[in-house]
């Protein structure tokens, strides 16, 4: 049977997500998750890409929904793709991750599926959801090489 004739099991296809690392001075923006998996864990703002939007648009939308912070697509820098099939316990996901910097005083306000949002300097001490600790470490390395 050829690949074209084979029925695709949609439940086995990975879903596309975005994550955004936002730096402010020496801190990183984190949300506290409202729902499982990783309920009450800190996480990066992000989520699933909707049909009809680019990954950049999804990143901007998720940032606004979860933290009330408005970014523009041009503010985003591509960090990388995270595709470990076990990164999300629900099912296989592929995260296209971005990073950005904000240099003004701004206070995030949690919304959507976030119960809390804040810039944290000591993010290393927190329990982070998914593979977000790796994503933050990678973004710090990339951010330093940009400067």
The CATH class turns out to be Alpha Beta
Measured as a percent range, the helix fraction is: 10-25%
CATH superfamily: Nucleoside Triphosphate Pyrophosphohydrolase
Share of β-strand residues: 25-35%
How many DSSP-defined strands? 7
Structural class: alpha+beta
Biggest β-sheet strands, sense, barrel: 7 strands, mixed
Q: What name is given to the CATH topology?
A: Nucleoside Triphosphate Pyrophosphohydrolase
Give the rounded overall mean pLDDT: 93
By DSSP (H or I, 4+ residues per run), the number of helices equals 2
Number of domains: 1
Oligomer: single chain
CATH architecture: Alpha-Beta Complex
Secondary-structure element order, as H and E?
EEEEHEEEH
The coarse overall form would be globular
Query: Which regions have little confidence, pLDDT < 50, spanning 5+ residues?
Result: none
N-C termini distance: 53 Å
Radius of gyration: 16 Å
How would you describe the overall organization of this protein?
There is one protein chain. By secondary structure, this protein is α+β, with helices and mostly antiparallel strands. It has one domain (25-146): Alpha-Beta Complex (Nucleoside Triphosphate Pyrophosphohydrolase), CATH 3.90.79.10. It is built from two helices and seven strands. The longest helix is centred in the C-terminal third of the chain and has 15 residues, at 132-146. It is globular, with a radius of gyration of 16 Å. The termini are far apart.
